[in-house]
Amino acid sequence: MQDTGWLWAVFTLIAAASQTARNAMQRELTATLGTVGATHVRFLFGFPFALMSLAGLMLVTGAPLPRFNLSYWPWIALGAGAQIAATMLMLAAMGERSFVVTIAYIKTEPIQVALFGLIFLADFCARFFISRHRLRDLLNPLTWADAAAIASFLAPLAGEAAGFLRILRTLRLLRSYQLLARLRADFKTFRRHEDIIIACANFAVFLFVTTGFIYETQHAHNPGIHNYVDALYFTVAALTTTGFGDITLPGTLGRLISIIIMIFGVTLFFGLARAVLVPDKVRFRCPKCALLRHDRDAVHCKACGEVLNIPDDGLGN
Q1: What Å distances lie between residue 183 and 178, 197, 217, CA to CA?
Q2: Which of the four, 128, 201, 259, 314, has the lowest number of CB atoms within 10 Å?
């Protein structure tokens, strides 16, 4: 029998060329239909072919139409919406830049991820090299979060299941002096609600990473964890100490994970509540004692009594 294993390369090249040609023709439609119209053409044109493929598959295999449960529809809607949004962004990028540049970005995604990982690794090594307190920095939880994020960037193929760890890089960015200074200068909302925004970001990162970790470690053998919604449900129930008991993590490791979620989750949750309920402060350095945070309507520094001239737009909001 003749070996036909090499045919995968031929069909891969044909599929890649066809996809590039489709994107090129779709780009031409944006001139007359716009980005939204050209995006709709792709999916409306492909819908009949999808039905024909499904009918042909059922006819050849004799398999019945699968039954769709309630959890199917939210996930299919989320996937379809993400695909449509990604197509719109691709066409918009082609309009702003060029077809060649956009296709090059799309086809080199693993390489870009690895390059970002190398950039973050260089930044990590440079900060550690110039640090005067390396041992203290090494024990800092942010350092370990950085290391986990960099590892997930540098292993885009072998460690794709750990891709959710990349969001940990957000924790370092939110503590970057340059980024915070830029956000304070450019966005009035961030200046007024900096503590709330940072607390929300920290809580969201914890929720996202914990949910991803629970799913990746439990869905293969835990009958209560079937998808990310189940993992998110358990995470929220654990960090709020509600503990309904319908989903549990078995074994000693599962109990330790639950304890960690409750301790850190409750801490972050109360930090978010404190940021929302406590009156917000304005950042203004006292010229005498250098106290940085004051009440928004403060006239004198509460530490030294120095008269403050805090800038105010006079709008009261």
Answers
A1: 9, 11, 37
A2: 314
List, as own/partner pairs, every contact residues 303-309 make where C-beta atoms lie below 8 angstroms and the sequence separation is at least 24, other chains included: 308/284
CB-CB neighbours of 79 under 10 Å: 10
Q: Does 274 lie in the same domain as 251?
A: yes
Residue 212: which CATH number? Answer: 1.10.287.70
- Name the residue range of residue 313's domain: 282-317
185 and 261 belong to one structural domain: yes
Bridge partners for 293 per DSSP = 283
Q: Do residue 287 and residue 273 come from a single domain?
A: no
Residue 230: Cβ within 10 Å count: 20
The reply to whether 204 and 249 lie within a common domain is yes
Same domain, 208 and 291: no
Q: How many domains does the chain contain in total?
A: 2
Asked if the structure places residue 200 within a domain, the reply is yes
Query: Residues 186-198: pLDDT tens digits?
Result: 887 887 788 888 8
Q: Which residues contact 131 (CB under 8 A, 6 or more apart)?
A: 137
85, burial (CB in 10 Å: exposed 0-12, middle 13-18, buried 19+): exposed
4 or 275, which is more confident? 275
* pLDDT tops 60 at residue 271: yes
| Three-class DSSP category at 256 | helix
User: How far from 260 is each of 206, 245, 250, 254, CA to CA, in Å?
Assistant: 11, 17, 15, 10
Q: What is the pLDDT of residues 234-261, one digit of tens each?
A: 888 888 877 777 888 888 888 888 888 8
Residues 259 and 311 in one domain: no
Residue 111 has pLDDT above 80, yes or no: no
Give the global pTM. 0.61
- Describe the chain by its helix, strand, coil percentages, rounded to 5: 70, 5, 25
